[in-house]
From TrEMBL:
Compartmental location: Cytoplasm
E.C. code: 3.1.26.-
Domain RNase III: 10-109
Active site feature: D16
Name of the featured protein: Mini-ribonuclease 3
Phylogenetic classification of the source organism: Bacteria, Bacillati, Bacillota, Bacilli, Bacillales
InterPro entries, sorted: Mini3_fam, RNase_III_dom, RNase_III_sf
The gene coding this protein: mrnC
Listed Gene3D superfamilies: Ribonuclease III domain
Length: 129
């Protein structure tokens, strides 16, 4: 199956889950704390604002391949029928673009690249905070 043909919002839906699971594992191993503290810590990584900022940094560093950029652009330009919570539409769309790429890499089983991307996201967020 060519996962590039899936709706970018479907890819973002999957990417959101993959990033959330990765971040949860990371913070549990790092903090070994109570669930409320873990949740507060996870928000730093998975909020739309954080994802949009990370995407901008990665774009500025030419981190993505051309085919990855195409997926990000599709995810960013997709028209969602839901409204962004706690952020503006541009930030929400940027985060959707990053999530779409994560979802695509996961479904396409591009294991090395998705692991590289997830660790890069975590490292950049931790450097900012």
């Amino acid at each position: 199956m060519d996962f590039k043909l899936l709706s970018p919002l479907t890819l973002a839906y999957m990417g959101d889950a993959v990033l959330d699971q990765f971040v949860r594992g990371h913070i549990i191993l790092k903090h070994q704390s109570k669930p409320n503290r873990l949740h507060q810590e996870a928000k730093r990584f998975v909020s739309a604002k954080s994802q949009a900022q990370t995407l901008e940094e990665l774009l500025a560093d030419d981190w993505f391949t051309e085919s990855e950029l195409a997926i990000i652009k599709r995810g960013r330009n997709a028209k969602s029928h839901t409204k962004a919570k706690n952020t503006d539409i541009q930030t929400y769309r940027k985060s959707s673009g990053l999530e779409a790429l994560i979802g695509y890499l996961h479904l396409a089983q591009e294991t090395d690249r998705i692991i590289e991307l997830l660790y890069e996201i975590v490292n950049r967020v931790e450097k900012r905070c």
